Amino acid sequence: MNSTQKNYKLALTGLFSALCIVLSITPLGYIKLGFINITIIHIPVILAAILGGLGPALVTGLIFGLTSCVRSNMMGTPFFGNPLCSVLPRVLFAASAWAIYTGLSKLPFIKKSISGAITAAVGTFLHTFYVMTMVFILFAQTLLGGMKIDAAGLKGYFIMLGTMYATNGIWEIIGAAIVTFAVLGAIYITANGKSKLSMEEEE
């Protein structure tokens, strides 16, 4: 990797990590639609994975998780004050987003912006799954009224997870796909425009 690529990855990592922090500590990280709050705090992690690769994705995911952990501890919020619920799932989510996009980018018939939107949708689904799975593993008895991790407890977990996907979850998946598609589309259009302008200047 040459110095230009390193600087590019460092810049992306800093930009998206800072964006995660801003979205986490301000109301900008949530879109309110009536009784539904759509979280968009995780989208910078997806963009870091797509535009920067695995390294920037992992660092941005780590910053996202640490910010969530610190904020939860300061507010006395249960569950997410535990790093296993707030940090670990976000790092796994970042790695998953990178892996999904890397796989899709090898398919020549899918445009990059479409691959990005699919990555955002699947990644958002997995983000919720990872977080809630860790919450369930560590706090099942609290969440499910004393249920343990047995057949009845797992049934309660899947009902809880299904309810989340049917309410906020589906809108977060759609929102992440739309935002990611729009951002990537704008970036690629701008990049292509600059390329064409450079060719015209050389002529």
Describe what you observe in this structure.
This protein is mostly helical. It has one domain: Arp2/3 complex 21 kDa subunit ARPC3. α3 (54-75) runs antiparallel to α5 (88-105), α5 (88-105) runs antiparallel to α6 (112-143) and α6 runs antiparallel to α7 (151-202). The two termini are 31 Å apart. It has a two-stranded antiparallel sheet. The chain is globular and about 55 Å long. It has helices at residues 3-25, 43-52, 54-75, 83-86, 88-105, 112-143, 151-202, and strands spanning 30-33, 36-39.
Keywords:
about 200 residues, Arp2/3 complex 21 kDa subunit ARPC3, two-stranded antiparallel ribbon, globular
Indicate the topology:
Layout lengths: L2 H23 L4 E4 L2 E4 L3 H10 L1 H22 L7 H4 L1 H18 L6 H32 L7 H52 L1
Helix pairs in contact: 1-2, 1-3, 2-3, 2-5, 2-6, 3-5, 5-6, 6-7
Give a brief rundown of this model.
The protein has 203 residues and is mainly α. It has a single domain, classed as Arp2/3 complex 21 kDa subunit ARPC3, CATH 1.10.1760. Helix content is 79%, strand content 4%.
